[in-house]
Structures are given as C-alpha cells and as structure tokens.
Amino acid sequence: MSMSKENEETLKIYESYGNAYLDNARKRRGAKAEEVKKERSKVILDAFSVLGKEARILEIGSADGETSLLARELGFKAYTSDVSSQFLDVIKKTGLPYYKFDVLKDDLGGRKFDGIMTFRVFVHFTPEDLSEALDKIYKLLRPGGKFIGDVINAEDKGGKTHEWIDFKNGYEIGVDRFFYYYNEEQLRKIINKSGFILNDLYLSGGDNGRKRFNFILTKPSGVKPEVEKYITEKILPQYDKLLGHTITHINQVISRSLAIAEDLSDVDRDMVYVVAAYHDLGRIIDDETHNIESGKLMRKDETLKKLFNNEQIELMVEAVEDHRASLKGEPRNIYGRIVGTADRYMDLDDMLARSYDYTMHLHPEMSDDEIIEEARIHLREKFTPDGYGAKKMYYPSVDDKECFETIERITRDPLKYRKVMKEFNKKRRK
Predict the structure, then answer these.
(1) Predicted local distance difference test score (pLDDT) of residue 388
(2) pLDDT of 245 higher than 60
(3) Topology adopted by domain 5-218
(4) pTM of the entire structure?
(5) Whole-Å CA distances, 26 to 33, 58, 63, 120, 166
(6) Does domain 225-343 fall into CATH 1.10.3210.10?
(7) How far is CA 79 from CA 66, 116, 169, in A?
C-alpha cells in the first residue's frame, strides 16, 4: 500500500511533536473530560455492544490510549496502536496491549478483531488514503465486525477540500499539518466501494454540531439473510434458558468460526454459521451430553430442512457432535474442526482465571497454594504448544499460538507461576 505525501509528512510531524499534541489535548479536555467521556462511551457502546463483552477492539491512532482505556472500562478487550514513538511511550504506561502500526503500510500478522475504531485520524487522509485504509480495516475485521471512524465535514469549512493548518482550538502544536475535508456524497461513495455496510452516518462536534462526519460500518457476515434471520430470531434466544453459558460466548464462537472460514476454500459459510450457533444448544437438555443433544435438535429442525439438504444437515450434525475437546480422535469433517477451534479461543487472562476457578470449584478443601499448583499442572498438560488442548486447535490464530507459548513459559517454574497467579488474583479481585 502507498500513502499520500501529505499524510507521510503529517506522520513525521507527529513523530516530532507528539508530546506537544498530547499536552494541549489534555488541557483542552480539562473541564469537559466527563462530557467527552460520556459522549465517547455512547459511541463505543452503540457500535460494539452487539459484539458482546468478550469482543476484541483495536484502536488505530490511540495517541495517549484514553479511548482504549475507556473501551476496557466498558468491558471490551481493548488493543491500542499508533505510529508515533512519542505516543507509544505514553501508551505503554497504560498496561494495554499495543502495536506499532501504520494502517496504510503495516499488517498485524493475520490478527483479526471484532471491532476497530479510530478518532481524528482520517482527518489527515486524502480520498485515496481513506479508500486504502478501509480496505485494510476490512481485512482486519472478522465477518460481522464493526468499525467506527470520522472525517471533517467540508461544509463546515466553507467547501474547502484540504489545507495545511495548525488549528487554534487546543490541538495546536506549533506547526501546520495536512487536513482533508469531505462532503457527504464523496464519503458515501468511498464507503460504498469498500464493501462495508453503512449503519450510521451523523454529524457532531464544533460550535454548530456539524464539524465531523461520524460513521459506523459493518463487515458483511457472508451468510445468507434468510439463514441469519432464522438463527438470530429462533435459535440464539434459546440460550437465554442457560445459566452461566451466555449468548456472548455463542456469538464469539460464531464470529471466530466465520473468520476461520473466510481463509478456507470449499467451505459453506452458511453451514459454518449454523454449526457455531447450534454447537452448545443441547445444554438446555443435558450438559454432559450436550453435543449429542445438539445434533438431535438439529435433525428435528424443520426450518433447517428447508434451508439445507439432507447431506448438509448430516455434516452439520457430525460437526456439533464432534466439537468437544474432551472427545477422542479428530472431528469427522472440516466444520467440526472449524467450530472446535473457535470454541477453544485462547486468551491468557481467561486461561489463568478459568484454570484457577475451576480447580477451586473441584477442590474446595485445597489451600490457595495447592489450587495454584494443580491449575499450573492442568495448564501445562492442556495449553502449552504440545498440550492436548493445543493439538485440538486445528486452525490456531497468531494470538492463539502466542498464548500457548506464554503459558509454557510462565508455568515452567512452579515458584514463578505461584507469584504470577497471586498477583493476577489480587488484581482481578480489586
């Protein structure tokens, strides 16, 4: 990917004047901090709440990381990124995961996110830059993923298209930067070409509330509308009957399954979607044999019989029956391997918490040190690169592999692991 000379020069300015920008931005927020936080919270929740609280949200151009910290406060798994080393030095202090990342030049090694957001970044992008950025963001999102962005409204600038300026509004840094201004027709045309679905486009900011165009976009799931409608209206609501196994988990398995399917040929995305949606439905009948019960429910589903042929239904039944990690042998077909992998998504904090809490549930008589050691042994047996759980991850992501390697490293020494877990438990119980 290429970038405009204007954007390239502006990046160099932020590399040199990043701290000045942050100092002035903090002063500007000042008394309006709570108002800004409230407004930004609403935008984030409006766009991302449908993704569930396990959603991975990447911010592009995080500056000081304040918006990503807010996303974490709202319950999302927030990831930050920026290009300026001065911004990254500040971001590192937040404790949030971060990437040095230029959306027009870099990639993230195959990582995928449920949601992506960027604020006051596209204000510097020419139409060509914006088109390329949306293409990259489209690839970084899982199917069904959401994106929040904004640009400056040309009408608020008297019809100007661009200029070099140092705005005197609290964001001045003592040197001119490049800004590009969009009219609504131009912006809609660029979004339509990107393949995204435009969910919302509205004006905000400035004295007249018309300074910026804000937009929320969705990456299409690739699933037929009639299939998606049936599952969302008739199948997913049934998970409300279950305690402790929430719809959030099911939606995440659907999202991860579709992301895996996106990179595979000869896979029916409708079938992937249905298997992911159905895989735990049998828990409403019996938890222990839920995979078998899920298959029975699928065979009885008269609507599925209208949407799929018998051969497809049998493949989906096999997949839901085979998705459990505890079963011996491999799933009989690719759909079972896809959903089985998606069902065992790796997150280090989740793994640490679940292994400790599950051990404590099984052995309430144990001391804290004994629970930690038992959990450590379990993690090494299951979730190191050679563990039986890792071997059931047929399509592991970059993040999955990194998680396996980290677990192997931190569980190697019992004393070091005990220290890690005591700090981890202390932090999560605050």
Answers:
(1) 85
(2) no
(3) Rossmann fold (3.40.50)
(4) 0.90
(5) 9, 22, 11, 15, 17
(6) yes
(7) 12, 9, 28
